[in-house]
Each structure stands twice: as structure tokens, then as C-alpha cells.
Amino acid sequence: MGSIQDGSIQTTLQYQSGFGNEFATESVAGALPVGRNSPQRVPHGLYAEVISGTAFTAPRAENQRTWLYKIRPSAMHAPFRPIDGGLLRSGPFTEVETPPNRLRWDPLPIGEAPADFVDSLTTLAGSGDPASQMGIAIHIYRANRSMTDRYFVNADGEMMLVPQQGALHVFAETGRLAVAPGEICVIPRGMKFKIELASDTARGYVCENYGAQFRLPELGPIGSNGLANARDFLAPVAAWEDKPGKVEVVSKFMGGMWSAEWAHSPLDTVAWHGNLTAYKYDLARFMTINTVSFDHCDPSIFTVMTSPSGQAGVANVDFVIFPPRWMVAEDSFRPPWFHRNFMSELMGLVHGVYDAKAEGFLPGGVSLHNCMTAHGPDVTTFENASKAELKPHKIDKSLAFMFESRHVFRPTRFAMEAVQRQANYDAVWGGFNKHFDGT
Hints:
- The protein has 439 residues and is mainly beta.
- It is 4% helix and 38% strand.
- The strands form seven sheets. Strands 3-18-23-15-12-17-10-9-31 form a nine-stranded antiparallel beta sheet. The chain has a six-stranded antiparallel beta sheet with strand order 8-28-27-30-25-24, with no helix packed on it. Strands 4-22-6-5 form a four-stranded antiparallel beta sheet, with no helix packed on it.
- A hairpin with a 2-residue loop joins strand 24 and strand 25.
């Protein structure tokens, strides 16, 4: 915590709490205009700039924008040129045919060739496309170096980062965030940032959301408390980097990757106010609500954030977690029941063991169960749970999560051909015995 001033770079690890707040923060006293958004002459010779995360005329409750007071305007740069996007893909996802099969992957390895966050982005699956502002893409990052004179901006969608191995230092236009495994970070569409590694390597998941911005779900019959509380979300205070010299800004636009040379760092925001910002959330602060009598509630009770689709109750994507929790049912089957869902599910595991699988689902791995594909606990988990004594039991030292969407996840060619794809995944459901005796 606290501020650090080092030459032309001002950094901070102080945070502001609350989700969707109208924040106001300055890293130099008097830099933030008071009483007007953009006076004729901004204090300290700064430039006023607005970043709008929604249409100008979006309803007030949904409207997101932030005023940035920058050392140089963002418009000051050379043209963008197309570059190779590596294993990064965007919708429409039509490289290969999408099978109706259950799919699972072992963790993708972190390579030895130098790769920062952008270089390492590898797309597993997605839906929709950026042009329609509908759907999502799921990527894995596996970086072994920091971004120093390189920056990234995604014009196609906001990005939710779910670290699995190695902490990240995220430096966005609104400030700095330290994000460790067990936390998430969301970076708005169109906001520039760079990612530095806190250790030699880092791996994790990214949900690129083409649709409506993530927000807290409505609580309905739960009432006014529970799930993720707004006060536990943290936004950065203003921090800036005044670093002259050639740098590269990589832009993702309409599915392609583009690069431009800048003569200064784009992270030169000295003050800002508004409600569009990068933010983070500690998943350990999630207030889990669970069954207290029998059966299982739907996994929607574990929803941290949601991106609505326009149809009430049917999400473009929900972010759902399965954290440590007490299972206190009197007479119920412990793991999730067998099920076929309208919504499609892509799961990841941050650490521990997922309670519905005895083996094969590893931290850093991914499973995909698309619309109406039958799935549930494997044979070993079913047998153990069916014989276990029914008493209070705590699921501990485990953190799994799910991106659940109304849209079918379409795997990429890389995902279908990867050596990490488990060719025998269907076999986990292959040994159930017949117990029905006809009476």
C-alpha cells in the first residue's frame, strides 16, 4: 500500500472500494478539475479525454464513462498496421466443425520461448463475433516475461482475467492493480494496459466479453445481501507513467491484431473521475449460499458477475464459482446431479480438486459441456458419494469456476488438435452399473 514516486513514473497500490461507483482520484494535488468536466485550461497543463464504455444515450443506470486527465492525448500516435495474432482467434468461430461431445483439456504448458501476456494468448473456444457485439471468447495466457515498452488495448470486448498460476501487476489507464490467483480482474473495452509478472511465469484464463459489460446479478428472492457484495470490488487510484521514447501499442480490432508505434507511454493519466475503470475482486469474499435441507440448488446461486443478453434471465455469459463451502444437506447426493442444460458450460480450475470429478480435471485445465450434452459426476465420485455418511461436510481447498453462456462454445482448430485434449474423456462415464431390479 502507499505511493511510490520514481523519476517520471508514479505508481500506487492504493484502492477504492465499490462496484459501479462514480470515482474521483488524482495523483497530483489539484489535477482533477472541480465543478466542470473540461475547463478551457486543465490544471497542470493536462489534456482532458473521455472514454465511453456505453452509448452516450444509454440509461443512466447503465451508462459508463470516465474522464481522463492525461499528459498527452491518446490521439497522438502513428497509424496501426496488421500483425500476426499467433494462436489468438475471434468470432465467428468457424475453423472446424463443433462436435456434440464432452471435451476436456490438460493444462497448456508455459513455453520457453519469450512470450508476454499478449504473445501467449491462446484461444480455446468462443461464440458470436465482435462485429455483432454478442458472444465471448475464452483464451489461456501463459507468459514468461513482463510487458515493458509494450501495451495492449482491446476494442472488441472487455477482458476478465482469472489467474491460475503466478500473480500479475496490471497497469491500466486508471491505475495499478495487483492480482493473484484466487482473484479476478476486469479491464474495460478500449482501455489500454500492460501486464507485468510478479514471478518468472504466469498462467490463467481470459474471458473476452463481446456483449454487455459484466455487472452484479440481481438477487431476487435471496434479498438484499449475499453473493458478491459491491463494497468488496476494488478500483485503482490514479497512477501515471511519463516515459518518452518509442513504445508499441497492440490493438485487437474486429478480430485482428494491429500494432502502432507511439512516442510515449499511453498510461499517462494523472487524474480521473467516472465509473468506467479496471477493477479487481477477491473471490474469497464471495458469500456462498447453499442448500440447508435436501437436493441441490441450481449453480446460478454461485454467480459472481453476469453479462446480460437482452432476454431476461438468459445471459450472454455468467461467471460462476465453486468455492470452499459447507454441504449441510440432510439427505442429498453430494456432487452435482446428472444434467443436460440449455446453457453451455466451460469450466476451469484454479486450485484443488473439483468435487464432481475424482481425477483428470487438473488446475489450469478446461472442460467444455455444450448445450444439451449429458454430464455430471464420474463413476468414482458417484459411488463414493452414494455411500458416504450424510452429515455436514466442508468442501475446502478448492476453487473451480464456470463461464456459462446461452451461446454454444465453438472450439478452435488449435483446441481440437492440441495434444492436451483428453481423447478418452467420455470414458469417465463409461462404468455405471445397472441397479434397477424391476420391483
